[in-house]
């Protein structure tokens, strides 16, 4: 503890980093019933805290190491932090980035004078290539999180918080590899052991949560792509050891909660943070009911590097994340006046956010309807109308497939597709990705469904249906593509897409 504290106190970050504001969030404070502050790391010159750790590490390289130059593998914030630090220190920097990296991020790194090499479709590809370059060039690798000096640099965020508001009781920290969490925790606990440190991860990228639960570092088979700034399959050795000692709790939040938090931060600051940058705020909102009224909570707004194209997706999910929209599948009998009756007796008085209709058979149809609901009470009132008129319905508000694909599709169940199986496949966002995939799977499988919708991220989700009697062989073929995939099992898929017989349940609600 003493050495970690010393390293943070001596961390050399302010040649390039700024002491960012700790800003009271009045609206969140009023809504959640206790004081909430935002630590504005999104206001750094590279719009991320990553600059702190990178510079602290690089400023302490030996003259011989500086002469060799540095190398990093990153698709985002760490790359910019290393590039700017290298420019400040007069060190040659080479950054390996996946080919899927949006051009805005590549150009930002190049603007600081760093050399960029594009390689592979993922961070793992870029990392492996960087290690190969090290062997031939001798460059020094700057790790994005698992290095004591990087961790100490990130810990200066915790030092600033204690100095800016000594009354803080809870600090919520976004977690990817764990560098920021470890840095803040080891410093704050040395000075103020009473302060509660809470890490926040996405549900689909919860490597630290899983590791702490297993009491060892685990490797996630898949990670979500929405909060790409924290999409890490395995946390670091140093960061895990520190989290075990000093972190009080690690929680998870879903995509909708993150989107709602992005909106909350915008309403407080008129700034738009990236998904990873909103994790901590989402964590405070999720745990607000557990925190005492006299709490003083701080959320780290860790970054704001996001492509403009992602805003549409975020806006769509914000209402669901804030609980102000509900998504339902409703069964209608195919008879004259059925749709008019539904709109008049059930929907009347509610704002419609989504409405899709597709004939299922000559006897019935399912509609996908989104309803604006200011509160849970309003949602239950809408459900009451459905019950009153004996509609069969299913609440899809938490169904990820329905929110990402179904609500944007025109189609329905197919009577022609045989042995149909649905998969969610992560495609790298680069030209030729679909052609490469089709070449890899060959001509043995008929595609019965395909839906893709870009989100402006490095990777995109594609919903694909295959006709296949031999699922084991199909999945072995999919594995050969090297694209991450998972089998889809969803009520929305059963209702709107799948050709399985007898799958449409007649109960009014899912358990």
SSE layout and pairings?
Elements: H1 2-9, E1 22-24, H2 26-32, E2 35-40, H3 50-59, H4 63-68, E3 70-73, H5 77-89, E4 93-97, H6 103-110, E5 115-118, H7 123-137, E6 140-141, H8 148-164, E7 170-174, H9 179-191, E8 196-202, H10 207-214, H11 237-246, E9 249-253, H12 255-269, H13 279-287, E10 296-301, H14 311-321, E11 325-333, H15 338-347, E12 351-359, E13 364-372, H16 376-388, E14 393-395, H17 400-404, E15 420-428, H18 433-441, E16 446-452, E17 459-467, H19 471-480, E18 485-487, H20 491-496
Parallel strand pairs: 2-10, 3-4, 3-6, 4-5, 7-8, 7-10, 8-9
Antiparallel strand pairs: 1-2, 11-13, 11-14, 12-13, 15-17, 15-18, 16-17
- Any idea what the CATH architecture of the largest domain is? 3-Layer(aba) Sandwich
Supply the helix-strand structural class: alpha/beta
Just give the CATH class of the largest domain: Alpha Beta
Low-confidence stretches: 501-511
Shape: globular
**Count of distinct strands:** 18
What portion of residues is helical? Answer: 25-40%
């Amino acid at each position: 503890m003493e050495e970690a504290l010393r390293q943070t106190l001596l961390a050399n970050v302010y040649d390039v980093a700024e002491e960012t504001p700790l800003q009271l969030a009045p609206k969140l404070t009023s809504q959640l019933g206790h004081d909430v502050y935002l630590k504005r790391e999104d206001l750094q010159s590279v719009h991320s805290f990553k600059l702190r750790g990178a510079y602290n590490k690089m400023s302490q390289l030996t003259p011989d190491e500086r002469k060799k130059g540095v190398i990093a593998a990153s698709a985002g914030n760490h790359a910019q932090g290393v590039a700017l630090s290298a420019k400040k220190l007069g060190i040659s920097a080479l950054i390996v980035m996946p080919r899927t990296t949006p051009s805005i991020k590549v150009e930002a790194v190049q603007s600081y004078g760093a050399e960029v090499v594009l390689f592979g479709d993922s961070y793992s590809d870029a990392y492996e290539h960087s290690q190969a370059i090290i062997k031939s060039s001798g460059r020094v690798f700057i790790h994005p999180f698992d290095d004591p000096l990087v961790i100490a640099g990130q810990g200066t965020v915790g030092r600033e918080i204690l100095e800016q508001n000594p009354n803080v009781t809870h600090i919520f920290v976004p977690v990817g590899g764990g560098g920021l969490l470890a840095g803040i925790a080891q410093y704050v606990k040395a000075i103020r052991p009473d302060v509660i440190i809470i890490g926040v991860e996405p549900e689909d990228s919860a490597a630290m949560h899983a590791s702490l639960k297993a009491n060892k570092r685990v490797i996630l088979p898949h990670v979500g792509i929405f909060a790409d700034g924290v999409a890490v399959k395995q946390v670091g050795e140093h960061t895990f050891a520190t989290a075990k000692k000093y972190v009080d709790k690690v929680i998870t939040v879903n995509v909708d909660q993150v989107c709602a938090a992005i909106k909350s931060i915008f309403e407080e600051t008129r700034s738009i943070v990236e998904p990873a940058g909103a994790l901590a705020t989402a964590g405070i909102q999720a745990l607000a009911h557990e925190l005492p009224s006299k709490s003083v909570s701080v959320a780290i707004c860790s970054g704001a590097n996001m492509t403009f194209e992602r805003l549409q997706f975020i806006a769509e999910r914000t209402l669901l994340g804030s609980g102000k929209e509900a998504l339902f599948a409703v069964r209608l009998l195919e008879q004259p006046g059925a749709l008019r009756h539904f709109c008049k007796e059930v929907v009347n008085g509610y704002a419609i956010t989504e409405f899709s209709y597709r004939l299922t058979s000559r006897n019935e149809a399912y509609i996908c309807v989104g309803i604006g609901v200011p509160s849970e009470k309003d949602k239950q009132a809408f459900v009451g109308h459905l019950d009153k008129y004996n509609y069969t319905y299913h609440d899809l508000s938490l169904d990820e497939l329905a929110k990402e694909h179904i609500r944007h599709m025109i189609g329905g169940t197919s009577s022609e597709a045989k042995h149909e199986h649905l998969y969610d496949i992560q495609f790298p966002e680069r030209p030729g990705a679909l052609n490469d995939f089709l070449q890899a799977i060959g001509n043995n499988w008929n595609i019965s469904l395909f839906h893709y919708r870009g989100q402006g991220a490095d990777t995109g989700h594609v919903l694909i249906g295959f006709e296949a009697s031999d699922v084991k062989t199909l999945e072995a073929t999919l594995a050969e593509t090297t694209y991450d995939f998972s089998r889809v099992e969803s009520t929305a898929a059963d209702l709107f897409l799948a050709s399985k017989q007898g799958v449409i349940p007649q109960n009014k609600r899912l358990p």
